[in-house]
């Protein structure tokens, strides 16, 4: 498929995604709009006199001194939440048995952009390979949705490696307002945990982990060259050797456990998206997860 044909096909798919997302976002999956953060996403609504049983942390000491009695702050939830999507478009994302991980990443990102907009959210975008290639600050409105979708369709990755930590560091320094950061990646990057943990101290984070079933096991097809899509390095292997296939499967399983352990250690929940299932199924799981957290 040529680049122009693939781009046109992606545009058609995103139009279908917009229609399907309306059902996902407005249906029972998302539930009532609430802030997923404790103590953030709140606006000061009123001051009232302190009553026994009120949280002492809510006492406004300056106002209490002026009024010569204890008063507490009452808050109401803001309707506008801020979201940042981090998209991994490294070389490993080009892998896919039928649909590539990169294509599924773009579909998931488009759906989340439309869903956030329908919930009156502010949405931003960060595209990363071995460096941050695109950063669009979060803004509300339809014009921002158009800007983000155009970025998804028109962007062509420059790098082939993966440095998720670079995106996490940028968000830590550039994004002051507490936000919900959704990382869409295969997480084929062993060095992300430290910076993701730092990001998690400032923002909410969710990992949408894109996988392909063909990565889990090698078929018996004799001697073949395996190529690392990020480095270009090739190695000749004998896939007819049962010991080699088992060693490969064990290595993949170990890497999967390490990634899952890193995400858990950072207290970042994980939603899996496979290339062999429609994108809306895992997104329903994602929406159900955010509703469980109150998002």
CATH topology of the largest domain: Rossmann fold
- Helical stretch count? 8
In total, the number of domains comes to 2
What is the first-to-last residue Cα distance?
Answer: 39 Å
**Class of the largest domain, according to the CATH hierarchy?**
Alpha Beta
The total strand number stands at 10
Estimated structural class = alpha/beta
Helix content: 40-55%
Q: Which spans have pLDDT < 50 for at least 5 consecutive residues?
A: 27-41, 291-295
- CATH architecture call of the largest domain: 3-Layer(aba) Sandwich
Q: What oligomeric arrangement do these chains adopt?
A: single chain
Portion in strands: 15-25%
Mean pLDDT: 80
Describe it for me?
The structure is a single chain. The chain is an alpha/beta fold and 295 residues long. The chain has 2 domains: 3-33 and 80-293, von Willebrand factor, type A domain (Rossmann fold, 3-Layer(aba) Sandwich), CATH 3.40.50; 42-77, no CATH class. Helices cover 41% and strands 22% of the residues. It contains 8 helices and 10 strands. The strands form 3 sheets. It has a 6-stranded mixed sheet, sandwiched between helices. A hairpin with a 3-residue loop joins strand 4 (122-128) and strand 5 (132-139). The protein is elongated and about 85 Å long.
């Amino acid at each position: 498929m040529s680049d122009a044909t693939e781009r046109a096909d992606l545009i058609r798919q995103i139009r279908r995604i917009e229609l399907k997302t309306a059902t996902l976002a407005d249906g029972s999956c998302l539930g009532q709009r609430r802030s997923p953060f404790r103590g953030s996403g709140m606006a000061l609504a009123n001051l009232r006199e302190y009553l026994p049983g009120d949280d002492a942390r809510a006492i406004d000491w300056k106002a209490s001194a002026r009024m010569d009695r204890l008063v507490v702050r009452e808050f109401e939830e803001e309707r506008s939440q801020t979201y940042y999507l981090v998209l991994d478009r490294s070389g490993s994302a080009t892998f896919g048995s039928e649909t590539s991980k990169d294509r599924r990443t773009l579909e998931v990102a488009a759906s989340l952009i439309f869903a956030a907009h329908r919930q009156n959210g502010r949405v931003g975008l960060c595209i990363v390979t071995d460096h941050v290639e695109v950063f669009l600050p979060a803004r509300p409105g339809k014009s921002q949705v158009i800007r983000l979708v155009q970025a998804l369709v028109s962007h062509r990755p420059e790098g082939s490696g993966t440095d998720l930590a670079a995106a996490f560091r940028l968000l830590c320094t550039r994004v002051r307002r507490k936000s919900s950061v959704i990382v869409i990646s295969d997480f084929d990057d062993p060095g992300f945990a430290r910076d993701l943990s730092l990001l998690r101290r400032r923002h909410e984070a969710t990992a949408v982990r894109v996988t392909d079933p063909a990565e889990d096991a090698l078929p018996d097809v004799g001697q073949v060259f395996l190529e690392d899509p990020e480095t270009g390095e090739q190695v000749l292997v004998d896939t007819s050797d049962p010991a080699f296939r088992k060693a490969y499967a064990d290595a993949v399983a170990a890497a999967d456990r390490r990634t899952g352990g890193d995400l858990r250690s950072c207290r970042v929940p994980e939603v899996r998206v496979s290339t062999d299932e429609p994108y809306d199924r895992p997104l329903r799981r994602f929406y159900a997860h955010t509703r469980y957290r109150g998002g």
